[in-house]
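Suppose a colleague, Dr. K., hands you the sequence of a protein chain of 250 amino acids and asks what its three-dimensional shape might be. Before reaching for any lab equipment, you can write down a predicted structure in token form. Begin with the sequence itself:
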Amino acid sequence: MNVIVVSASRGAASSQLAAEGHYACELARLGCTVRWLPVVAAPDRLPEPGPGVRLEPIVSRPPGFVAVASRVLDAIADQAVACAVAAELPDVVHILGLGGTASVNLAWMANRLGARAVVSADAHQVVCHRGDLRFAGRTECTEWREPARCAACTGIAAPGGIGPVRALLGRALAACRSPYDPRPVQGNFRNRTELVLGGVLVADLLWVGSAQDRDRLAAFGVRRERVEIDPENAALRLERLRSLVRRGDS
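The predicted structure, expressed as tokens, is then:
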């Protein structure tokens, strides 16, 4: 089986990249032809690929935190993945980490170019712009489709968000109805929801890490029966990928 593994989240931690690279190596060990396309700000952060894995890094930096919708759009990654799929059509494109700063177009492009698109997603990164599902970095949040609430949350100085100076300046400018408020814009969160949801819905197979994540995506707008719990084992994953490809060929 020919598989492209895309580590799609720009700015992923080294430990996450190492785990995703290890998965690509495990697929190669199990007999797959594997290309690993990690999207990184700097390729020198990448671990060495194992035997049988062709490494094709994509260098792309995410926009700033306040660029809400732009953080889930990445023309550089889109073009690189499309070229890789078109050059040597794989059976499966497995996109790791959709949500966060990953391009929402990857599953759609893989599918349209003739490959089966598989997405592994963290519900926190899918539904929450900050990625932690904590309102203003503090209390647990369960309101993920309310643009005004998301704008208020991300406009407060908190870890993973804007700094105290920008938050203070934003409040001052908002009080005088200035158009130059440096905080995230409310309407952009509606756009983000629609973009990310669309990127998830076009996947042939959607994996999440837990039943709670499946519940979160169901509340976000994904039909529960379309979401599976990730087996988190390369051999079991490969068995499921093969069944997906066979189903598509029948």
